[in-house]
Here is the input.
Amino acid sequence: MGYTALSNLLHDLGMRENPVRSFEQSLIDNSSGSVAIDGHVIRSCSNGNDLAEPGYKMNLMKAPQVNLLIAYDIKNKVPLMYRTCRGSSVDKVSVVELLQSRSFSNTKFIVDRGFYSAKVLEMMSRNNNCYIIPVPSTNKNFKRIKKTLAYTSGEFVYKSGRDCARIVFYEEQIDEQTRIIVYKDVDENNSKRKSYKQMIDLEENNYTQENYEKYCDWWGVYFLQTNTKESASEVYSDYKGRWSIETFNNYMKNDAAFNDLKIQDYYVQHGFDFIMLVTGLIHSRLNESVKELKKTNISTFDILVKAGHMRMVYEESEWRLHNTRKKDLDLLTAIGFTPQKTYPIADSGS
Here is the structure.
């Protein structure tokens, strides 16, 4: 696509929000109900973008930024929606508009501490929704519990793949709906103690016995607040499952390379949100299809390279597939995609 055609497409997507809204709402309605929301900063190289402003990463990026919020299904591992916000806004303010813009029900939100505010927690508790969120260290309950903390409520083993960890925890009811659960990953704590001691022995800068004594009890400790009805072990497992959104954001930033945007128009920017969503959906589905092949010598990258060699050529009123190999077509068929050899152009009068 040429610049004008692509710009017009993005502008149309940003202006005509209803079809995009319906598509995103269908993804939300059919999700697993376990939704992570996270913020992501994108460097903007445009002076004409109304959303591009100096933000908290201004010194690092040496340019204005736009902030991107993503809602992500952590169990199905697919994005549900994107929302670009002003670069100067903070997550706990921007997320209010995101939550208001779509309908969430029977949803468990798993978010980081940057979203902690009374307003956001109230919104995440509507329509039979609930949340899991880390408690900020400035919170009065955090400070109070930390003073006399003892892991007296129980322990369990957390399993993730082949890895296991022994977790001890303390649980306290804050009000009728809300609990704070403090977890300590004993194995993580022991590992970090050992690593830190080694750095002290090597006389590395800033690694001191004084700092060791100050921080060693808090390595591998998580203060989580929730209004779910789940057990402590289930809450912990849900929160750890949130890591998949970080992996996905890493793909969007580094592999898909959605950085250093030069978008000028406000509506084009929001149209680009939809393109990022579709890109993420394709990436997620492709990953799952490649895993189902159960072939260690085939990766997602291999599939994209093989598909990239093929070309659609316009010939005699139709698009025809060129530069193909049978083994590549067979591989695409194995992951559930069989490309057509020709794509007729619809009659303009139909």
Notes: The mean pLDDT is 87. Residues 266-293 form the longest helix (28 residues).
